[in-house]
Amino acid sequence: MKLLKIIILGLAIGLPSLVLAQNKPVGIRPDIASVAVETETGTVEISRVQDNKNLISQDWAKTSRPCPPFCIQPMQVAEGVTTIGELELMEMLKAPDTLVVDARLYKWYVSGTIPGAIHMPYGEVADRLEELGCEPDFDGWDCKPAKKVALFCNGNWCGQSPTAIRSMLAEGYPAEKIYYYRGGMHAWRMLGLTVVKP
């Protein structure tokens, strides 16, 4: 019924108007067209693909992967860790006191990542806490001065960033300084957001 109303409206106002409606600009929000992020190689504008017919493809279009290891991850990865979405992640990418970590294996990272993210494979995170603001001490790590950090991996079915988060917590990283972007690269690509190759 809705499609019939659209067709009748299109006939009433003329087909060119109906075609124009399909090619509207694609913003991040009604008031934000893009977000500028500083990276190691300079400023990158995060925006969405402007082609209204754009589709995700290849590995990102696959809906069913064997579980394990590709099992659906919980919304809350650990007590005290905050789960965030794309808008919150973009704010964190702009914040000087926050790091965004791509916790995926190298082969996934080089296929494309979120602008401004640093690469720290999930199996190495616990050994590289100094890069996140922790200080080594006699018992392991003192993470009181640690930075806020957001971690992501491939998406809702990927366990790489949840594994990294659990290892950080085991080393004493404060849960309230950890953010989990559960949607990861799958959601980022599905929304047509800018992806860079390192």
In words, what does this structure look like?
- Helices cover 26% and strands 18% of the residues.
- The chain is α/β, with parallel strands linked by helices.
- It has one domain (25-190): Rhodanese-like domain (Oxidized Rhodanese, domain 1), CATH 3.40.250.10.
- The strands form 3 sheets. Strands 3-9-8-4-5 form a 5-stranded parallel β-sheet, sandwiched between helices. A two-stranded antiparallel ribbon has the order 1-2.
- Helix 5 (160-170) links the parallel strand 8 and strand 9.
- How many domains would you count in the coordinates? 1
Shape: globular
Q: Using only CA atoms, what is the Rg?
A: 20 Å
* Euclidean distance between termini CA atoms: 47 Å
Beta-strand residue fraction:
15-25%
Helix content: 25-40%
How is the secondary structure organized here?
Blueprint: H1 2-13, H2 15-22, E1 35-39, E2 42-46, E3 82-84, H3 86-94, E4 98-102, H4 106-109, E5 118-119, E6 135-137, E7 140-142, E8 148-152, H5 160-170, E9 178-181, H6 184-190
Parallel strand pairs: 3-9, 4-5, 4-8, 8-9
Antiparallel strand pairs: 1-2, 6-7
Helix pairs in contact: 1-2
Quick rundown:
By secondary structure, the protein is α/β, with parallel strands linked by helices. The chain contains six helices and nine strands. The protein has helices at 2-13, 15-22, 86-94, 106-109, 160-170, 184-190; strands at residues 35-39, 42-46, 82-84, 98-102, 118-119, 135-137, 140-142, 148-152, 178-181.
